[in-house]
Structures are given as C-alpha cells and as structure tokens.
Amino acid sequence: MARIVGAFGVPHTPHFPAIVQRQDPPAAEIERLFDGVARRLAEVEPEVIVFFTSDHYNIFFEESLPIFSIGVAPAARGPSDYPELPSYEVCIDSDLARSIQAHAVASDFDVGMSQEFEFDHSVIVPLHFLTPRMQVPVVPVFISAFVRPIPSSRRCHALGGVIREAVEQYPEPRRVAVVATGSFSLEIGGPRISADSHTGIPDPRWVERVTALLDSGRVAELVEEATDDQLARAGNAGGEVLDWIAMLGTIDPRLPGFLEVQRDYGHAFGAWPVDTPRSWA
Amino acid sequence: MSVYAVNKLCRRVVHEPELRRALSEAPEDAVRAATPPLSEEELEALLAGDVGRLSKMGANHFLLHQLGRFHLLGLDLPEYAARIRAAYR
C-alpha cells in the first residue's frame, strides 16, 4: 500500500535559480534553505511527489478556471512562463494521479483533471532545487489561489485529507512525499508593492503568525485564521498559503523537523518527515 | 467585454514571443488586433502605458506587470512600479 512519508513546503521565487547561479548575495542563504528541505526530502526516499501549487495564469486563465485540478498527463515540460530558467521534462505518475482524482470525486470533492499542459515556474523552481535530476515523478494538484472566489482554507485542508485517503487506498506500494509551494504574504505588481520593487510583503505580521503556528504544530488554528479577508490582506498572492494548508491536511499535525522563514520575501521553508525508511533508521 | 480583454492580452504576452515583437514594433496595430477587442479607453491606456488607469479600471495586477517585465508599451519593471505607486499615492 502507498503511504505519505513526509510533507514539505518551499517558495518558488522565479529569480532564485539565477541568483544562485550568479552567486549574488542572497545565494548562500537560498541554497542553505533549499538544501535544508531537499536533504530531509531525500531522507524519506520518496518514489513520487504529490505537488500542491497554484498556477499563475499559465495553464488556466479566466476563460476556464477550475478551483481544484489534478494533472494526469504522463509528463509535462516547463517552465512555460520564464524562458530564461532551465527547462525540464517532469514525469507524472498518471496512474496515481487518476486514482487520486477518482477517489476525490467519489468523496464529493469536485476535482477536475488536466491532460495537456506545461508547468510554470511555481513547479519548476522548487523541483530545480529539490530534485534537480527530476528522478522522482510528481502528481500535480492545482489550487486556484489568485482569482476570486478562491477555495476556503477549510476546504483545502480537507482536500489534503482526501488525498491522504486516496494514497493510503492505492494498491501499489509507493512512498509518497507531499510538497507545497507558495508565499504567506506577497503582492506582485499591485498597489501594495514596496518603495523599491514591483513586489512587496503587505502583511509581515501574518508571515510571523503563519510561521509561529507551523512551528508549534497548530494547524487547526492556521486553518481557522486563514480567512478570505486575511489572505486578501496578505497580498494578491496571499492565497498561496492554501497550498501549504492542503499539504498539512495530508499528515497528522506535528512539529516540523525544519522550518525557517525568509522575512524579506514573505515565505518559509519547512519539512515534516513522517516515515523514515528502514535503510536509514 | 471589458478588462478581461486587457488581462487576456497581458497573459498572451507571457506565452507569445511574436505578440511581444508586434507590440514592440507596431504597438497600435498589435493592440487593435487583440481578441476579444479592447474598448477605446483600454486601448488608449495601454498605448500610453498607463497602468495606473488600467489598474483602476480593474485590470489584474499580476498580469499587468508582465508588460513591464517584457519591456512593452514604454514600460519596464521600475517604471511599471512607479506608475502603480503614483496611481495610489
């Protein structure tokens, strides 16, 4: 039987790969933080990654916008939106993906499917740092977090629970890691940008609050406090915390094995290992 | 069909290098050829790079900032940001 062996959260800032490549000042910190998660991800020896992300108007657009969708293609290339980033082809465990979608729909979760798409930077940047050889297939789960109405935190947390059930009912043995990506507070191009950038962190207090709740395993409080108003106050990308909340729904509440916030960016890096393989213990 | 047309044009900018080229070389022709068609007010604001006005008309900021990112319609990211800030000062 398949099981969830760990849950992880990272940002997907599109400029990070170039900063690291050029070894600009924040490079050492970016490498250290991604390494903190990548090392713990490698330690749980995942055979597949369920990947919660929010498409940035690239796969989906206002012409047709599912609240939840699972990618079921055999593979997808990316990134579609930043030609200057390294390009990858990422394998998708489409059998597990279809099985998760079927279980979700049977459980009254109306999750759509996507058959033909390219990943954007929100998938490629994290994988570039976490699994740069792209050796671990993914199951992408897209949560609509930018165009209102967006799903509630409660619904996203419950989606995580349903995906956990689907994994645990999957008949093939699979070690499944869950990765979420997103910021806690971020404004891109809107009125709340900072004085010297086209981005900003409108609600640093919320970044601290989310981090404190994660650090103490208080997931129910996070779900309670991540209201639509709060996420709107956090910026036009504030909904991305829903990806983290869905990720947290796939495991029992626990203390993180690793958690560090990057305040200047309004995001954090976290790891919740669940199951360490025998070979390692 | 309002604002949606602006959002759609900005979204296409990310994925269509030929549209970026057309917007650089003959912006008015490129903007007039957009589908769904833009209103005269949207067209005028786009050609002026008046992202503050487009913002107040309800255009999506994440999509709008792509015009600055790709150096279109007289914008780059610092100029984009300056105009948005000025609109909300």
Please characterize this protein's 3D structure.
The complex is a heterodimer of chains A (281) and B (89). Chain A has helices at residues 16-22, 27-43, 94-106, 121-130, 153-169, 204-215, 219-225, 228-233, 241-248; strands at residues 3-10, 48-53, 68-71, 75-78, 88-91, 112-114, 138-143, 175-181, 187-188, 199-200, 258-262, 267-273. With 281 residues, chain A is α/β, with parallel strands linked by helices. In chain A, strand 11 (258-262) and strand 12 (267-273) form a beta hairpin. The longest helix of chain A has 17 residues, at 27-43. With 89 residues, chain B is an all-alpha fold. Chain B has a single domain (4-87), classed as Dioxygenase LigAB, LigA subunit (Protocatechuate 4,5-dioxygenase, Chain A), CATH 1.10.700. In chain B, helix 1 (4-15) packs across helix 6 (61-69). Chain B starts with a helix and ends with a helix. Chain A binds chain B through residues 56-58, 61-63, 80-81, 146-147, 187-191, 193, 195, 197-198, 236-237, and chain B through 4, 7-8, 11, 14-15, 55, 60-65, 68, 77-78, 80-81, 84-85, 87-88.
